[in-house]
């Protein structure tokens, strides 16, 4: 109790799909401003863990805490809905397939949630859009529809949309996996600039070089457990566990 | 709910239902014939036939079936066509649904993969042989379900002939609503019979569809 | 008795007015059928079982029976329970409800076709279930189903002729009034058909415009 609470605290997270145990007693603490990469083979449970943090894939047992608030509270349906919607406003999420709203322009994509949930004026909303789009370098695309953007641009808008809610933490679920190789860099640059601003981030990724260059901590997961974790230079240069070594051998050569 | 009334009048509804079934069957047969001719015309090499086919579809689908029925039944005598109400009903409904069936059949024929035609022609088959031996057998399978949708619409469409006083289900229901002031009961009785007819027909169409599919 | 179309122009004003009534009835029922269709679809998919099943039964009955029969039910049924509406209101309600059921069927399919990621995208921003359905799911579903809903609208225009049977003075009944004066059914029904055809052309043109305009926002 005397020790300060971690910013994000995952305690004994367990997730089962029927008989299949996807997460086995995971514990993970992230400090404010920390940038954590989660790597591992597909099916290792890394995306499930990330999606559990905002309760998109609810845990079977265990607790998720954001500062002093428990995210996955066991509440009656109505109260849970109210609670989770408030909590999610503080947790930004970026998906592999962007999930931009195709029927809304870039501007509307970004302002929709702030307008509905934060009660801001039109002027404030406009200012917010301009601010966030400038951050991702897409100011000139403000009145375009998603169908008129490239994949890299879509993902940058998706990041701006999440940032517009002024989240305390950003979750990235393989944000560049669906992109053509030549479009990956523009998204990586945006994520790097967020890192420079000390945004707290948890990044599930396949890109080892990117993880190595921006992250403070790397977590290697396999078969639902955290096999090894540590600073990037330790994990990438000098891994201790045999499974980590095998995985990195396959992925660093590419 | 007036059950006594329903029990008293239902034999008349069943009798009327027989007329509805006759109308549906006859007009569907006529519609299938019109549809086949229409599709043939629309896919013809001759531009005159194509134009006639397109005009048929456009005019019939662009105007209300009720008006078509009125032109035939009330306007027919002026141009020498004297029909009783039932025959006018069959003819009008058949020509009407034929335009929709034209598009259904044409769509199914077009949907057959172009590679099928090319493969047949490279084997040395004539255009006619390709159409009758390769394309149509495949198209026929594709058109059963959408034709079923047309027929479903046609069963409900037979109600229109109530407006030219053919004593079928809807006309009967209307008459009994007028004499008993029990619209809900009469609607339910007639509605139930329509739903049974549609249900049975739907089952029949699915049965045919299953028989012709390649297993 | 041969044909003589020269009497038709004398009734030009009446036919024009009848056409306008037909257009007005179509538009009013279209609005009911569109929003009613959305409402029915959302209830059918997300509503509690207690309301879901009655609504499904309602849809089932409306899809399985002729429109004309439904018009009789609504017109005479409302009178029976003491609501004496003008015929044209009953006609609009009948047409609107009938096509709402058909639209609902299409919109339900559209809603189910919306990518699951859209739900997740909205929920992670903190939108509630209802907000997500209203702002994200339904608008997208409606865009994808505009073409089939447009087809229903074309059908609605033609089926609006049926309300003449319960005494609504629109295009069909107008031509019948002209016929009762002139005894020239062929000429006036053909004239009415031409009017319907022209309105239909305009409608189809507008629908194509709408479809191409929403293309980019899909």
Features:
A: 254 residues; alpha/beta; 4-stranded antiparallel sheet; 10 strands; B: 215 residues; MetI-like fold; 8 helices; flat
Overall, the morphology of chain C is elongated
CATH fold type of chain C: MetI-like fold
Strand fraction of chain C equals under 5%
Radius of gyration of chain B from CA coordinates: 21 Å
Tell me which protein chains meet in the greatest interface and how many residues each side has: B-C, 40 and 38 residues
Largest sheet properties of chain B: none
Look at the structure and name the CATH superfamily of chain C. Answer: MetI-like
At the first level of CATH, what is the class of chain C?
Answer: Mainly Alpha
Q: Average the pLDDT over all residues of chain C and give the rounded result.
A: 91
Give the topology string of chain C: H per helix, E per strand. HHHHHHHHH
Question: Could you explain how this protein is built, in words?
Answer:
The complex is a heterotrimer of chains A (254), B (215) and C (218). Chain A has 254 residues and is an alpha/beta fold. Chain A has helices at residues 46-53, 77-88, 106-118, 122-135, 151-163, 181-196, 208-214, 232-237, 242-252, and strands at 8-17, 20-30, 35-39, 61-66, 69-70, 91-94, 169-173, 200-204, 217-222, 225-230. In chain A, the strands form 2 sheets. Chain A has a 6-stranded mixed beta sheet with strand order 6-7-8-3-9-10, sandwiched between helices. In chain A, strands 2-1-4-5 form a 4-stranded antiparallel beta sheet, with helices on one face. In chain A, strand 9 (217-222) and strand 10 form a beta hairpin. The model of chain A has no long low-confidence stretch (mean pLDDT 92). The N and C termini of chain B lie far apart (49 Å). In chain B, helix 1 (3-42) packs antiparallel against helix 2 and helix 7 packs antiparallel against helix 8 (183-212). Chain B has a single domain, classed as Orthogonal Bundle (MetI-like fold). Chain B has 8 helices and no strands. The mean pLDDT of chain B is 90. With 215 residues, chain B is mainly alpha-helical. Chain C has one domain (5-217): MetI-like (MetI-like fold, Orthogonal Bundle), CATH 1.10.3720.10. Helix content of chain C is 79%, strand content 0%. Chain C is elongated and about 75 Å long. Chain C starts with 11 loop residues before the first helix and ends with a helix.
């Amino acid at each position: 109790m005397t020790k300060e609470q971690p910013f994000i605290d995952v305690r004994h997270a367990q997730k089962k799909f029927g008989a299949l145990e996807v997460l086995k007693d995971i514990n993970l603490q992230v400090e404010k401003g920390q940038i954590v990469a989660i790597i591992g083979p597909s099916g290792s449970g890394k995306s499930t863990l990330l999606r559990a943090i905002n309760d998109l894939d609810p845990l079977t047992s265990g607790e998720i805490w954001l500062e002093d608030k428990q995210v996955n509270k066991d509440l009656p349906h109505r109260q849970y809905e109210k609670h989770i919607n408030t909590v999610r406003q503080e947790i930004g999420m970026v998906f592999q397939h962007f999930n931009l709203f195709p029927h809304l322009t870039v501007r509307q994509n970004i302002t929709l949630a702030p307008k509905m949930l934060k009660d801001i004026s039109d002027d404030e909303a406009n200012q917010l859009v301009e601010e966030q789009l400038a951050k991702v370098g897409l100011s000139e695309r403000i009145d375009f529809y998603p169908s008129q953007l490239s994949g890299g641009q879509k993902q940058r808008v998706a990041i701006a949309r999440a940032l517009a809610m002024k989240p305390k933490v950003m979750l990235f679920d393989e944000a560049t996996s669906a992109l053509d190789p030549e479009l990956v860099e523009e998204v990586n640059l945006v994520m790097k600039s967020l890192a420079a601003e000390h945004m707290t981030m948890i990044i599930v990724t396949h890109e080892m070089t990117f993880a190595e260059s921006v992250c403070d901590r790397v977590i290697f997961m396999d078969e639902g457990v955290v096999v090894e974790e540590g600073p990037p230079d330790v994990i990438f240069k000098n891994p201790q566990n045999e499974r980590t070594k095998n995985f990195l051998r396959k992925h660093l050569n590419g | 709910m007036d059950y006594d009334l329903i029990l008293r009048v239902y034999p008349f509804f069943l009798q009327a239902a027989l007329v509805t079934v006759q109308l549906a069957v006859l007009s569907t047969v006529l519609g299938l014939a019109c549809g086949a001719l229409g599709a043939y015309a629309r896919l013809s090499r001759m531009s005159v036939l194509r134009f006639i086919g397109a005009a048929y579809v456009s005019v019939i689908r662009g105007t209300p079936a009720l008006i078509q029925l009125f032109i035939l039944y009330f306007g027919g005598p002026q141009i020498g066509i004297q029909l009783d109400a039932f025959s006018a009903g069959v003819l009008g409904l058949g020509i009407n649904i034929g335009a929709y069936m034209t598009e259904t059949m044409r769509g199914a024929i077009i949907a057959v993969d172009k590679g099928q035609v090319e493969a047949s022609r490279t084997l040395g088959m004539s255009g006619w042989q390709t159409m009758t031996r390769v394309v149509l057998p495949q198209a026929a399978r594709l058109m059963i379900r959408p034709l079923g949708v047309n027929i479903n619409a046609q069963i409900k469409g037979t109600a229109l002939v109530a407006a030219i006083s053919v004593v079928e289900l809807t006309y009967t229901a209307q008459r009994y609503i007028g004499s008993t002031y029990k619209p809900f009961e009469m609607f339910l009785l007639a509605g139930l019979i329509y739903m049974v007819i549609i249900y049975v027909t739907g089952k029949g169409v699915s049965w045919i569809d299953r028989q012709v599919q390649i297993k | 008795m041969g044909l003589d179309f020269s009497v038709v122009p004398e009734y030009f004003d009446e036919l024009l007015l009848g056409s306008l009534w037909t257009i007005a009835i179509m538009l009013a029922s279209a609005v009911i059928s569109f929003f009613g269709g959305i409402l029915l679809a959302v209830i059918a998919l997300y509503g509690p079982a207690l309301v879901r099943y009655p609504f499904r039964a309602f849809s089932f009955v409306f899809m399985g029976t002729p429109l004309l029969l439904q018009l009789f039910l609504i017109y005479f049924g409302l009178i029976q329970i003491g609501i004496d509406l003008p015929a044209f209101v009953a006609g609009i309600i009948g047409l609107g409800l009938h096509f709402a059921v058909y639209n609902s069927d299409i919109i339900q399919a559209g809603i189910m076709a919306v990518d699951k990621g859209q739900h997740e995208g909205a929920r992670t921003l903190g939108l509630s279930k209802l907000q997500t359905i209203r702002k994200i799911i339904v608008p997208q579903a409606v865009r994808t189903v505009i073409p089939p809903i447009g087809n229903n609208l074309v059908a609605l225009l033609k089926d609006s002729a049926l309300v003449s049977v319960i005494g609504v003075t629109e295009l069909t009944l107008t031509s019948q009034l002209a016929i009762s004066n002139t005894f020239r059914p062929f000429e006036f029904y053909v004239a009415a058909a031409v009017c319907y055809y022209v309105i239909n052309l305009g409608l189809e043109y507008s629908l194509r415009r709408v479809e191409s305009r929403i293309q980019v926002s899909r």
